[in-house]
Amino acid sequence: MSRIIISGASGDLGRRVTRLLLDADPHRELILTTRTPEKLADFASDTVQIRHSDYQYPPTVREAYAGGDVLFLISGLNLGRRVSEHRAAIAAAQHAGVGHIVYTSVGGVQPGNPALSAIDHLQTEADLRESGITYTFMRNHLYAEIVSNILVAPAVPSGVLSQATGDGMFAPVAKEDVARCAAQCLMHPAAHAGRIYEITGPELLDFHRIAALASHVHSSPVEYKPVSEEERLAFFDAVGIPRTYDPSMPPSPDGHLWASDELVSAEVGLAQGYQALQSLHVQQITGRAPEPLASVMERVREVRYDKIDATVA
Question: Order of strands across the sheet with 70-73?
C-alpha cells in the first residue's frame, strides 16, 4: 500500500481529503504535513503521522516528506512565493523518492490567461512535467461556496452584484466534489498518471444567471451589473483590501486572506473566456455527478464562509 503525504493538511481541502481517505480505509498510512501540527492532533494514530513542514524552510519539507510514496501537493496561497514554494516541495518529493504527485492547479490554465494565479500554476505545471515524477493535475475551478458566500451573499442587501467578469461563463464546483476527486486520484495514482482534469461543476453560468439564482435562494431581487477592472480595484481599495497578498496581513471578516490584484485579474480572465470550461471529469473520476451551484447556495447560505466544512457537505 502506498503511503500518502498530504501537504498543507490543516487547511479545509486537506482535512476533507484526509477524512475521505480514512473513511475508505481507517488503517491507511498517511503523512499529514503542516506549519501548525497542533491543528491536526485529532487525526494522529498508529498509521497517521503529523509532521511539521514550512515551505519557507525547505529542510523541514524534505524531512516531512521522508518515507512517502504519493504526494498531494495543495497549492500555496502566497502569490509572491507560490512558485518557489512549489519548487521546494517538488525538490523535497524528489529527495524522498516520491513516485507520484497530485497537484491542485486552477481552472483554465493556459498561456495568455491574465489571472495572476493562473500564471503561477502554469509555471508549476511546467516544473512538475520536468521533475521526472509522474503527476496528475487537478485544475480546480472556482469553489461554488466562494460564489455563494463571498461573492453573492454580500450583494443581497443592496440587490446589486458587481464584478469585472463581463459576460464570461464558468462552472463553479463544490468543495466536496474537489475533495472526492482528489481522494480517488491519491488512492489510485497509476490510473490517473499523466491526466489533466478540469474539475468543474455541472453547468456553465454567467453572473446574470447567478444573480437570478441568488434572487430565488435569498427571496430577494439581485441584479448583476458588470464593472470595469479599474472600478473593481477602486472598490477593493475603498473597503480596505490590499492590492497585493501579504501573509502577515489581517484576515478579512470572513476569515480569509484576500488581495485585490489576484482577485481582479481572475475576474478579467473569466471575462475573457478562460474559465468557460465545463467537463464530466468529476463524474468520470468519482462515479457521481457534481453538485449544482443552486444546491450549494441553498445548503450553505446560513454559514459563514470560513465555517463551511465537510460536516455541511
Answer: 48-52, 30-34, 4-7, 70-73, 100-106, 134-140, 196-199
